């Protein structure tokens, strides 16, 4: 199996892919998977569609920046690719050094400018006298330190600010973790495959949709939300994206709790299909947090099945019987 | 064919039944139908269920008094009987006399007290000097006048206040019609058969339901109405009836525009079946007024069919394909 | 103070009035109140409006029969009379006899036919050999027994089926209580005064309304219910009543949880006033059951007051300030 | 008056500001306004708040890219600044040259890479043989051409791709207009002032809001939309923005049709204030398109005023009157 991801190596997307592989059942992950970094989601998607890779990990939503437009737009525009899994990765940084270096030894810290900005409070507090040096990426900072010549006397007094994965990948020791000033930021990633494949429901699933609303009808968004609500389907995310043809025209990227196999989800999708000029199904897949939604008895599968059976029984009465027609 | 109706003969119910027979296609009404008056809807229903009669005409709603409780309750309580047609009859009275009598000849007017009360304005204006005499029913007033001995000299100066049908039935001449003080009152009647039979849809149909609401959930009526609304199903009547077990507990007798064969109606019924502890289907049948509802493109049959086809196509992707499972 | 009630004496309405008087604060009930039976709610209302009585107790809703049309229609049609209290009375019967009579002594039981029908199961089980004798009312049965000549030897072997109040009123002894076959039936009564008076809120109140819906707008009932819902106002009763001008045209008699002084109720009333062609306020008054509704923080008085203050503050910005106008 | 705009000169924002000034009543625009370009909306906002400029024009929404995050976030985060006007500017390009140059003369075309990409279809069709040369901005391309030395023989065979305003500003002649490949793109700009000032309503107004939804309540967005709908307030734009504290947490930037002085808008704002943990009012101002919304009689100002008067009259009944208290 060939897996693509938004590179370079040791990015948070890489981390998300490793998490996804670790979570797979053993037999599915039996063969040694091949991981391949791509410079953009667009090029990776082309490789996926052309069969050069089998799946692709891409960021879809960040807790600070919101939806990742590039990924959302590619998902909406590419036929027959679907999301089959999600992973959430904390946006967190570590201070890493060569084995044997202690925090007190550190005289210089290297990282990418962007990452430096996110940890400056910690640096000021814990390494006020250290020199802060630029690197082309957090991965590069880690790699350079790892590859430093054994003769290089300064190597034992240098550290890198990088992702936990980069530290591990390059054999560095973590001197401090969670050193970002704003704790709790997360990015959500999705694993995408071709051929419109939908994994079976687990009971703790999510379904991703794109809908356009009828622009000539007032209250179209209200109407769409009522159709989810009428089927007991909660939204875990709703984001607007411009359609592009006029000011004020938006499509909505939506995650709902539940799986296409859940009757309540399928019924809500049918209802939306009626009222929305465009509706795209981007996948049903297990939730990263494994939380099972609280499903009311009136929107459980059995409630839908019994309702169907009732109307089917009524409909049989439509056939003229022995009674003379009145 | 044996038809029951709430008697005696020449009542408005009798009139409704004659209207219904006249409206039937010729081959359905080929044989001479037999019409049988009953003293109550309850006894007529027993005859219907036991197969002694084939259909039954009963009043269901009056524009002044509202729902006819007796009929509504029997419909709700009796299994496998359904409404197959409706008729609307104006509640109107005529002044009728023996052929040859003119309005100027009339010295005495007979009717039932109830009918007299409804025409007293007209009598005061047009027959201020006439004696007003009681009769046991409007039909009895008409019949007595019709059967008056040919030797009875007063017969030519007497008139009866009765239904148009009674005048016709007893061979009287109508001297004035529409003489009721409050014009425009109407009663709606339904034709009921056994064996849960549903006539085919005509495009201008009505469906009658009884629903109980979940009493432990706030906004249950709102929720039920939203489910009709979400399917573009209009209500032409909604009436409350006490369930009987506690104060404030009501069921609702509902007429909606449309037929069980309309996808939007069937879908609304399924939705209600999920959320209502009790839902009874009492029939789909042609509207008396023949008005076709204005159906939006998003609730037309094709919209439901296309939505089903779309979700069915998605669901086929659930079967594992050639792709290795990720 | 003069109180009217739907008579005769010892009816359940009489019982409701006695309950209401017992529940009044001592100083309000200081003077000996005068209680006066009326033969109909209509005549009692005329007396109320003309100032001959100060208040009137009338039945409004029965758990088996539903709304009491006569009372509902008079409340809707009479200006400036309002409901100021409610009482709930169980519809229950007792077997009563002269003091000294035991159940084993009873050979004959008298009551009104209607009451007999409701206790026949109990009579069959406990007095299978007793003669059942008709009376003109349950009160009459009790009174006749109470007034029986002391010489009448059969008096000691006779019993009456009547209301608990009738037994007490006529000095009879209760041999068995709660003997009705269907337990739990209740009737709700309202105390009505003139001059549009509204008692202060207690926190456990009810408000009674009549609304007509705009007949030319689809979903009018749904819209009205949404306006209650948007203000967190629960309905404890909703009943339809024909408006009278056409088939399918209904007004709704509604009880909501809360008092006119509750911001959420006042706001819902304002919203309904906008969309309903007719809305009648029939009173805010303490609930008989004393249950306080569960009010969310978003519909508490403070939430409305803060929202008002916010918009008022914004509106002050409408006055041109020091800034030059752009 | 000092006006800031997102520079450099001749940007579409500059164009929007000129449009706004041209639209002002004469007396308001009497003095010669001073226009000052800023390198970012953030620095311009600081100048506005500190009183160095009086108003600021900034882009808020583009028909292709959607909301302009920078402006939306600054509006949400800055106290007491409000939108007082909007302008819509078509995103369109012209081919401009020195006076006397004709299309047939053009041998070289200069522009910014970004603009070149948007007009390449037109260039291929109309100037297939022209050399395409880069410039640092579309304004720079125009300026360089305008300032070319009079001795420069090539100047008469060169053209610039720039905004219509740049051509006019630098005294160039427009050889072709509307040459962008995708026609119809527009950007919407808002004029912002300090001191929370609200211009009077014109009848064709817009109100801009930011709301956060209660994240622990299902259907919070649905509830918010219902509150607009219940007051007949249409949304002309709704966009999500991450709140930043967790995945799936969004605020909404909303434009509604109407003005704070419209009772329906004020009432909807009060209702939202109750249910939303955060609601920001960013201004009521005239719509650029001048379209007056279709206001139903049930949401007209008079409907709100009459509803208020009715409840106020009812509330007067709360004061104990002459009637003894029951």
Automatic annotation (TrEMBL), chains A, B, C, D:
Going by the record, the broad EC class of this enzyme is lyase
Q: Which InterPro entries match?
A: ACT-like_dom_sf, ACT_dom, Chor_mutase/pphenate_deHydtase, Preph_deHydtase, Preph_deHydtase_CS
* Its EC number(s): 4.2.1.51
Query: For this protein, what reaction is catalysed?
Result: prephenate + H(+) = 3-phenylpyruvate + CO2 + H2O
**Pathway(s) per entry:** Amino-acid biosynthesis; L-phenylalanine biosynthesis; phenylpyruvate from prephenate: step 1/1
Q: Which domain of life is it from?
A: Bacteria
Q: Which GO terms describe its molecular function?
A: prephenate dehydratase activity
Q: Where is the ACT domain?
A: 209-286
Residues of the Prephenate dehydratase domain: 2-194
Which keywords fit this entry according to its UniProt record?
A: Amino-acid biosynthesis, Aromatic amino acid biosynthesis, Lyase, Phenylalanine biosynthesis
* NCBIfam families in the cross-refs: PRK11898.1 (NF008865)
Q: What is this protein called?
A: Prephenate dehydratase
């Amino acid at each position: 199996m060939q897996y693509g991801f938004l590179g370079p190596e040791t990015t948070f997307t890489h981390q998300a892919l490793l998490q996804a592989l670790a979570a797979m059942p053993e037999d599915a992950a039996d063969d040694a998977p091949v991981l391949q970094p791509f410079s953009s989601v667009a090029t990776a998607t082309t490789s996926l569609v052309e069969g050069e890779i089998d799946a692709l990990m891409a960021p879809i939503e960040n807790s600070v920046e919101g939806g990742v437009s590039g990924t959302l737009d590619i998902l909406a525009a590419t036929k027959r690719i679907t999301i089959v899994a999600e992973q959430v990765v904390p946006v967190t940084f570590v201070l890493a050094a060569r084995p044997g270096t202690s925090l007190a030894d550190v005289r210089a810290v290297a990282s990418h400018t962007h990452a430096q900005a996110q940890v400056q409070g910690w640096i000021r507090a814990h390494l006020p006298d250290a020199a802060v040096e630029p690197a082309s990426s957090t991965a590069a900072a880690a790699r350079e330190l790892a590859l430093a010549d054994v003769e290089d006397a300064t190597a034992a007094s240098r550290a890198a600010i990088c992702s936990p994965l980069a530290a591990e990948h390059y054999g560095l020791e973590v001197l401090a973790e969670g050193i970002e000033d704003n704790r709790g930021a997360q990015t959500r990633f999705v694993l995408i495959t071709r051929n419109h494949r939908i994994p079976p429901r687990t009971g703790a699933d999510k379904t991703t949709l794109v809908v356009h609303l009828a622009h000539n009808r007032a209250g179209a968004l209200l109407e769409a939300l009522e159709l989810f609500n009428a089927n007991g389907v909660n939204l875990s995310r709703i984001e607007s994206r411009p359609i592009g043809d006029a000011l004020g025209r938006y499509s909505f990227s939506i995650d709902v709790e539940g799986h296409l196999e859940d009757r309540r989800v399928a019924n809500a999708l049918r209802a939306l299909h009626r009222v929305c000029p465009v509706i795209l199904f981007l996948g049903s897949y297990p939730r990263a947090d494994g939380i099972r939604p609280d499903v009311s008895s009136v929107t459980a599968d059995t409630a839908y099945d019994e309702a169907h059976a009732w109307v089917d029984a009524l409909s049989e009465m439509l056939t003229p019987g022995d009674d003379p027609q009145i």
